[in-house]
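Lecture notes, continued. The same structure-token format from the folding unit now serves as the input rather than the output. Read the line below as a description of shape only.
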């Protein structure tokens, strides 16, 4: 978490006022005078004028293995919404989205300060998927997927070519793909443009955070190392 956010979360002042305190060298992290833009990691000790600073409430950061059929929305009136499914005691929201008919890893948090850093396209954070299609995959399909596929962008209302990506054949009808782009239903639309239909799609990794052995429908807190790396992104 950014230092000014951390101080503000304690209720001591606004983020703008916190920046002034930092510029006045009134703030220390682990005994060292802090600078503007620094981040606070789990376990760090922050003081202002020698007095410890602690947020009123620890933020929540979790990894969830979303089942097919769960919708990534905070709107509780929508049946099968992700918030009701997880039923966490804190108020959390998904970071990004994963289609209702897709499964796999999605992050949820109560910390709004990290969302843009993770989702901002120019940051080019990797996301990895395992995809099965309706017929055998040939070399042309792999090559075209990697180079970029021309698909219609409904937001900009025009065709766009997807960014180059990494694709690896796993089985005759299954491939692994690593994207650093997040267009709506991108993989399904890329496959469709090349004459293939997606049968199943599972996200297995977001940046450095892996799904691993997390069972479908279950969630876990991020580890200290995962969180430390995430907050530095």
């Amino acid at each position: 978490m950014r230092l000014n956010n951390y101080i503000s979360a304690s209720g001591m002042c606004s983020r703008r006022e916190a920046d002034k305190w930092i510029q006045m060298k009134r703030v220390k992290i682990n005994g060292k005078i802090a600078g503007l833009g620094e981040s606070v990691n789990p376990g760090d000790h922050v003081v202002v004028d020698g007095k410890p600073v602690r947020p009123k409430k620890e933020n929540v950061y979790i990894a969830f293995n979303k089942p097919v059929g769960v919708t990534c929305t905070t709107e509780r009136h929508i049946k099968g919404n992700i918030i009701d499914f997880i039923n966490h005691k804190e108020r959390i929201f998904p970071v990004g989205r994963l289609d209702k008919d897709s499964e796999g890893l999605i992050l949820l948090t109560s910390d709004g300060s990290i969302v843009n850093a993770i989702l901002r396209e120019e940051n080019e954070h990797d996301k990895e998927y395992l995809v099965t299609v309706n017929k055998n995959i040939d070399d042309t399909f792999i090559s075209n997927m990697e180079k970029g596929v021309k698909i219609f962008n409904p937001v900009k209302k025009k065709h766009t070519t997807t960014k180059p990506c990494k694709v690896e054949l796993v089985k005759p009808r299954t491939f692994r793909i690593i994207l650093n782009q997040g267009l709506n239903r991108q993989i399904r639309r890329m496959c469709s443009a090349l004459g293939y239909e997606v049968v199943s799609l599972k996200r297995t990794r977001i940046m450095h955070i892996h799904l691993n052995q997390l069972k479908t429908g279950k969630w876990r807190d991020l580890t200290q190392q995962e969180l430390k790396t995430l907050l530095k992104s």
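Point for the exam: The radius of gyration is 21 Å.
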